[in-house]
Amino acid sequence: MSDATLAAAPGNASGASPAILEVEGIAKRFGGLVALSEVSFSIRKGEIYGLIGPNGAGKTTLFNVLTGIYRQDEGRIRFEGGLLENATPDRIARLGIARTFQNIRLFGNLSALENVMIGRHVRTRAGVFGAILRDPRTRAEERDIERRARDLLEYVGIAARGNELAKHLSYGDQRRLEIARALATEPRLLALDEPAAGMNATEKVELRRLLESIRKDGVTLLIIEHDVRLVMGLCDRVLVLDYGRNIAEGLPRDIQKDPKVIEAYLGAPREAARAQ
Fold first, then answer.
1. What are the strands of the beta sheet with 74-79, ordered from one edge?
2. What residue spans of 96-158 are helical by DSSP H?
3. pLDDT digits (tens, 9 = 90+) for 51-87
4. Which of 160, 182, 205, 231 could cross-link with 98 by S-S, CB 3.0 to 4.6 Å?
5. What pTM value is reported for the model?
6. Beta-strand pair 48-52/237-242
7. What is the full DSSP assignment across 200-250?
């Protein structure tokens, strides 16, 4: 693991913290399908917050609402106290929320370095004319973008592969690259959709170390993950969705014993569970 740090990342993961994200009564419908209903939770600054649930529970739909891909039909979302009302994905990124996707979305025919540099452009100042004229200010900014991108590749542990095409990287390294590109936007909240998907046991251990380093450097994390063991060992608190609704929220040790969570994952009828 690299010794590089997210020098630009603000925040403090120690002690009690105010909420960075507040979700109140979110609903999302697709025609007659209710994907989310009355979903509410809050995430404190500096914590690692887990989101789990069976397939089809609405986890990725919730991520898409939080990051502006979908607009909720009901409810409110506040980020750092400000209301996110009809915000577009690019505006949400500029406000400080970045995400990765369940299905990796990299530019396969660009290098790893170029992929991270693309993410960094959300923080650039040069406009169209600057890009065309290539004035000294624009060239200096481009050098800064490349320098920061290289730092982030080192941070996630793939600096040696910066000049390789993204499509030639291993699956685990592609996941790391996607995280580096998200970090290039300087997020205060990083939402990760199944970051451990497709990873072997060794890669998952390395991923956990990386995520802990990101939190240590001041970025709050929201994680969807099917690897329940990873979630329970990593997250401070966990929210469980089932059929688009909250069914449990709390400390990992409490979530593991919650009868509603056990039922959602194992499919045991409530009546049978009560009779035991």
1. 33-44, 19-30, 74-79, 82-83
2. 112-120, 128-133, 136-156
3. 999 989 999 999 999 999 999 999 999 999 999 988 8
4. 182
5. 0.85
6. parallel
7. -HHHHHHHHHHHHHHHHTT-EEEEE-S-HHHHHHH-SEEEEEETTEEEEEE
